[in-house]
Amino acid sequence: MLPDLKLAIGLQEIDDRLAELNREISYLPKHISEIEKKLVAHERKLEADRGALSANLKERKKCEGDIQVQDQKASKLKDQMLEAKTNEVYRAFQNEIEFCQTEVRKLEDRILELMAESEPLDRNVKSAEAALKAEKAQVESEKAQARERTAAAESVAAARRKERASIVGSIAPAVYQRYERVRKGRRGRAVAEALEGRCSACNLTLRPQLSQDLKRGEEILSCESCQRILYYNPPVAVEDLTGEAAPAAQP
Q1: What is the pTM of this model?
Q2: 197 Ramachandran zone, left/alpha/beta (phi>0; psi -120 to 50)
Q3: E strand or H helix at 62, and its extent?
Q4: How far apart, in whole angstroms, are the C-alpha atoms of residue 248 and residue 141?
């Protein structure tokens, strides 16, 4: 195989690995952003639950205060009723006292309703607080892991870029320019293996003459359809793998 062709194949392998690393490096910040968004959504839900519980307690306190007001009002009316001069005035005081007592009963009923409503609200808040605490710890752990993975990927990518620069410095400029032109036009894939008379990238059947020229390996050739640089790996003989001659066919 021609030296420049070997270098082009090595360059493709490095570029493939760099593409993987770059995808991983770009994915990790997005992943962190997504889990942080979920965390914010859960924090907002907790604040809404806390707000509902707070509103419940506030209304209960208001009801309790209103009961005191109605009780005080009824007490004053009772004192005033003792000084009533006529039955009509007495009944008027009595009606107002009954109204105050009715309002107190309504307020007491409302307090009971609010107390019943507050129990699940309180449970929701406590449960959400515990879940949020655990989730925050999980998010911080995932962020730390993501930072470690990013640093590792960036370190490997830096080594691969250095290796790539070394290959670029060794390969013939014309071959490199050809490689780059095809790579940019074919979504990063500039080199393809010829397998069973086809281009493994675009699956086009190669002309017999092109297949023969590839096997001779005297020049760098391209697929006539996708323009990718082609290479051919001859099949490995049994004796090449074992160091021994292949067994003779039985008569």
Answers
A1: 0.61
A2: left
A3: helix 3-81
A4: 63
DSSP state of 162: H
| pLDDT for the residue numbered 236 | 59
- Which CATH number belongs to the domain containing residue 130 in this structure? 1.10.287.1490
* Confidence at residue 73, expressed as pLDDT on a 0 to 100 scale: 93
Q: How far apart are CA 115 and CA 5, in angstroms?
A: 81
With beta carbons less than 8 A apart as the criterion, state whether 74 and 101 touch: yes
Distances (CA, A) of 56 to 50, 52, 59, 128, 129: 10, 6, 5, 18, 18
What proportion of the chain, given as a percentage, has pLDDT over 90? 62
State the Rg of the chain over Cα: 42
- 177 and 161 share one domain: no
Given this model, what pLDDT does residue 138 score? 85
Give the structural domain span for 69: 16-170
Contact 37, 133 (CB under 8 A): no
Task: Please report where in the chains the tokens 């707070």 appear, as a residue.
Answer: 54
Distance CA 165, CA 167 (A): 5
Helix, coil or strand: residue 198: strand
Number of domains in the chain: 2
DSSP letter, residue 199: E
Domain identity same for 177 and 166: no
